[in-house]
């Protein structure tokens, strides 16, 4: 991960940023192009663009529960302006907040409070960069896992709707379900791919990561139960993939059978007509003799 956000050696005032998460580098000709950028490589390529905001402003101004940004407040040890009070207002010790869970983690003199919309880092200046790196990587991974979890009810509903196709397929089933089952197969495959990448990101194998950042990230992941949640997603995703593979094969085989049946029927009809045409003179002669 590239570290380009401010990392002052002496700081006693709270500072705040809005982190915008982009799938491509910001255009250098825009306002975002002049901001600081953090590059995340796992579980996918993400660019966190940091825009400085007023830490004394109501944090609700920067809240975004849509998952495209995160409001971040940094509280150095000597910052006594109470800026964190407004940022922490209404955040429970545990449970849900801002469309996601509340995560609290800390190591030695670094501490983090995280929700889906805003986060607070308590750390001395020399530990802030590592804490920020861990927080950004955790945010990307946590949101990715949440998206996979949120997709599972739709997958189960689709399986319930199409379960009879695993053993019986009619001509109408082929016509009505081929497109939707194909689309769901692609979706399940994509979710499986993302889950595997999330597993890799959770292992933090990238050599560029600092030990301090890795330790805080691991603590955040532990408090968010990411290890168990990803493990719990493994079997359902495998089942959904195998199920849709079976249904896709049955629909394909049924489609080929009905197409072949139709062709064979036409061939038989043509042969029957040829037989009648060939036999007609003999039949006519037979009737004439009688």
Question: What can you tell me about this protein's structure?
Answer:
The chain has helices at 83-88, 125-162, 171-203, 211-223, 226-289, and strands spanning 15-22, 36-40, 46-53, 69-75, 96-97, 100-101, 103-107, 110-114, 118-122. It is α+β, with helices and mostly antiparallel strands and 290 residues long. The strands form two sheets. The protein has a seven-stranded mixed β-sheet with strand order 2-3-1-4-9-8-7. Strands 5-6 form a two-stranded antiparallel ribbon. A hairpin with a 5-residue loop joins strand 2 and strand 3. Helix 3 runs antiparallel to helix 5. The relative contact order is 0.11.
What distinguishing features does this structure have?
disordered N terminus; alpha+beta; seven-stranded mixed beta sheet; 5 helices; single chain; 290 residues; Methane Monooxygenase Hydroxylase, Chain G, domain 1
Q: Note the overall shape.
A: rod-shaped
The rounded Rg comes to: 30 Å
Fraction of residues in H or I helices = 40-55%
DSSP, total strands:
9
Please, how many helices? Answer: 5
Oligomeric assembly: single chain
If classified by CATH, what would the architecture of the largest domain be? Answer: Up-down Bundle
Strand content: 15-25%
Number of domains: 2
pLDDT below 50 for ≥5 consecutive residues: which ranges? Answer: 1-9
* Mean pLDDT over all positions: 84
Strand numbers in spatial order across the main sheet: 2-3-1-4-9-8-7
Organism: Xanthobacter autotrophicus
Protein name: DUF155 domain-containing protein
């Amino acid at each position: 991960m590239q570290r380009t956000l401010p990392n002052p050696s002496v700081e006693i005032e709270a500072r705040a940023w809005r982190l915008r998460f982009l799938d491509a580098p910001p255009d250098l000709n825009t306002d975002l192009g002049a901001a600081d950028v953090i590059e995340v490589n796992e579980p996918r390529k993400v660019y966190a663009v940091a825009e400085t905001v007023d830490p004394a402003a109501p944090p609700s101004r920067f809240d975004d529960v849509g998952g495209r940004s995160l409001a971040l407040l940094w509280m150095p040890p000597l910052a006594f302006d109470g800026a964190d009070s407004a940022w922490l207002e209404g955040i429970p010790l545990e449970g849900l907040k801002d469309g996601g869970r509340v995560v609290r983690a800390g190591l030695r003199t670094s501490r983090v409070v995280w929700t889906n919309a805003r986060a607070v880092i308590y750390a001395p200046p020399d530990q802030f960069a590592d804490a920020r790196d861990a927080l950004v990587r955790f945010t990307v991974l946590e949101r990715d896992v949440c998206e996979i979890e949120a997709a599972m009810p739709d997958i189960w509903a689709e399986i319930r709707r199409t379960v009879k196709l695993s053993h019986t397929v009619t001509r109408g089933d082929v016509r009505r379900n081929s497109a939707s089952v194909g689309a769901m197969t692609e979706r399940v495959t994509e979710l499986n791919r993302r889950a595997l990448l999330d597993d890799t990101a959770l292992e933090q194998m990238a050599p560029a990561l600092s030990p301090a950042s890795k330790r805080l990230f691991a603590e955040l992941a532990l408090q968010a139960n990411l290890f168990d949640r990803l493990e719990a997603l493994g079997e359902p995703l495998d089942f959904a993939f195998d199920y849709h593979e079976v249904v896709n094969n049955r629909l394909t085989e049924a489609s080929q059978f009905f197409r072949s049946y139709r062709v064979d029927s036409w061939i038989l009809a043509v042969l029957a007509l040829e037989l009648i045409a060939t036999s007609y003179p003999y039949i006519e002669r037979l009737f004439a003799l009688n």
